[in-house]
Amino acid sequence: MLHSAIISTLGPSSSSPEVIKGLALAGSRVFRLNFSHGSHDFHKKCAASIREVESDIECTLGIIMDLQGPKLRIGRFDDGKVSLVSGCKFILDLNPDVGNSTRVNLPHPEIFNVISGGAHIFLDDGKIKLKVLENDGDTIETEVIEGGILSNRKGVNVPDVVLPISALTEKDKTDIRILHDITADWVAISFVQSAEDIMYARSFIDSDVGIIAKIEKPVGVQKLDSILEVSDAVMVARGDLGIEMPFESIPAIQTRIISMARDHSKPVIVATQMLESMLNCHIPTRAEVTDVAFAVGCKADAVMLSAETAAGNYPVDAVKIMAKIVRKTEDDGLSFIEVGDNISAMSRAVKAAVEKEGIKFVVTFTETGRTAIEISNSRLNARIIALTPDLNTMRRLSLVWGVTSIMIDEIFSFSQMRQVAQEVLFKHFDGVKGDKIALVAGIPFRSSGETNVLHIFELTCDSIS
Asked: Which of 150, 195, 293, 346 is a Cys-bridge partner for 226, taking CB atoms 3.0 to 4.6 Å apart?
């Protein structure tokens, strides 16, 4: 079993049931549906195929619904594209007419309301860099700092300002309506700028799905602590983050986000361009291998493949290779971030018991998944088994580091939990008599509260006839 989960993004290269099954068998336990692309029918079919594969291979699979968010784009050009020359002037305006080599429409009044001279604007994933000279409210005059070819509808990034925009666009709100149809377990909110963005998004989601805050703007990094307080997980979205912040700062920011997520006991995903060369090549670069290993060594809960599986020529091979990297990194014990002081007292006690007593399995009963996530956060050198009566909880826990979930009937007493734990370990995990087990739970059962019981015992044969 891999401790760090692998997330595969589905797309044209990976939407068939056969490929989805191949991705799951190769090691992917979570699938991302990217609502920046594809129709509702496409995503519904992908989700149905995931659930068919889940049943076929008898392995719990999670689904992430990744919302597009307020993606900013320029308008169109008369000839489809223009060439911008460094040192020349270029105008962005609210005029909806097609553009030319001197101007183009920027259909986002909110930018005009806040940007001023000296700020920078990046176009086309950062390939084009502009410096604002003047803004009169309808026209932004800029100087081209880094030029190049600019074509229709390319993306816009404005890292120097906080935009007064909603966390959810009308498109996002429409997409959320099919949340139940695709049986999503997580919803990822794009371009999060504040805790209020997460709370606003939660008000539109009539479900107990987990909410992932995608950190891809400087203000999101600055307000990370409060964002983590109200989100259920966080994603280091290095694509836009690498445009809006100096690229040389990304490794340190990634490490900071992982560390802070761990301090808050929130799962953390590292994403974007992890095996990018495998879009067209059957093997990755050595730098990409090291990138994946670094994320795993920092104890990220999950590493994510985007275009590699969605549009690449080798989607299944990409997962196989990522699984090899994850497994080898974990087997070698590479570790770049220590467990922080902010883990809970229970997690600290469990970790100490595992190290002192040689405990092989840590078994927790959880209805919401919170206890399993809390125990996972201490990154134990033991197998973490989450017993739950809730299928949705099982699927959400597919994202969490080192956790294997097993569906059980309701449990109403600690003695019953001990009995069930033994049965599960003998049946599913090759438990043998004498194995040391740690049981972790909150008492009384079925009431929200603190995880407050740690019980250590040895497996016996009494529970198996």
From this structure: 195
pLDDT digits (tens, 9 = 90+) for 344-355: 888 889 999 999
- Residue 373 in contact with residue 344, Cβ under 8 Å? no
Domains of the chain: total: 3
In a domain, 369, yes or no: yes
Task: Give 389-417 as a DSSP string.
Answer: S-HHHHHHGGGSTTEEEEE-----SHHHH
* Annotated catalytic residue 404: no
pLDDT higher than 80, residue 265: yes
Considering 272, 364, 371, 393, which one is annotated as catalytic?
272
For 83-115, the pLDDT digits (tens) are 999 999 999 999 999 999 999 999 999 999 999
Catalytic residue among 73, 76, 81, 131: 73
pTM, to two decimals: 0.93
Short-list 67, 68, 65, 8, CA closest to 33 = 65
Q: Do residues 270 and 172 share a domain?
A: yes
- Whether 214 sits among the annotated catalytic residues: the reply is yes
* Candidate list 29, 32, 129, 383, residue with the active-site label: 32
Q: What is the CATH number of the domain that holds 109?
A: 2.40.33.10
